[in-house]
Design brief:
Elements lengths: L18 E4 L26 E9 L2 E13 L5 E11 L4 E10 L5 E3 L2 E4 L8 E4 L8 E3 L11 H12 L17 E5 L10 E6 L5 E6 L6 E8 L4 E9 L6 H6 L4 E3 L4 E11 L1 H15 L1
Antiparallel strand pairs: 1-7, 2-3, 3-4, 4-5, 5-16, 6-15, 8-11, 9-10, 10-13, 11-12, 12-16, 13-14
Length: 289
Amino acid sequence: MYQEPKNTDHFLSTYGCFVMHCGPLRMGCPGSEDDHTLHGELPYTDYDEAAIVVGNDEQGEYIGVTGTYDYNRAFGDKYQARPLVRLHQGSALIDVSMTIENRSNYPMELMYMCHVNFRPVNQGRIVQSVAWTKESMELRTAIPEHVKVSEEFVDFLRQLEKNPRLTEVIRPGDEYNPEIAFFIHSPKLDEDGWSHYMQVHADQSADYIRYKPEELDHNTRWISRTDDQAGLGLALPATCDPEGYTAEKNKGNIKEIPARSSVAFSVVAGYLEKGDAKEMEVLIGKLLK
């Protein structure tokens, strides 16, 4: 929606970048009992420091961007957020990481999501290391307070609740206005602990993302298509579901970072050429057997 990030205090006023870190104290759509903003402060905060980094690792030479954000509230939480994105030479995949360090002498509550946004394309085919069942893909039926819906949308939700596979192919006539979301359960993992997701294009190249459920044990699929905007969260890995603080607290999903400790999360996302996409589809097929 925007050509560049906006200096704002609301998630929806700077929405549209490829990767947005959400949280870490509060995350998701606030419910009627919540007083936090949509997806917390990280998506639009002003960082205290920023830097370009270059280096060489087992994948070869890379260039990246990093920075630090210090959150410090009197009689409240104290943390430092340290994101890092790296692009390796000869690759169209981006290594995305976030470290959250609790600098308080007391535990800190944690709600974090890595919000990666692709563009849904007509006839785009979703390939995933998750079964297309209503048990593995739980439809979010609650309507967030910030959206308005039509009767056609409600009817589409009823169909998807019974058969999530209807979303396997992005069809032009389907009602993703304003958005639908699935909570993804029990993903299949490769030998290194990664779960994989693709949107395969007509030319057989693909959008791609992978994450480790050992680090981020919740995952949401999000699709939005209107006449004004479109977005596809193939996989939005997180520490909890995006239903707001009170709902996640009641479900027992709020985690903690111990005093003077840190947590780190890693996601890989980007583009696969035709041959690499085919190899990945074969791998995903083997994981589902």
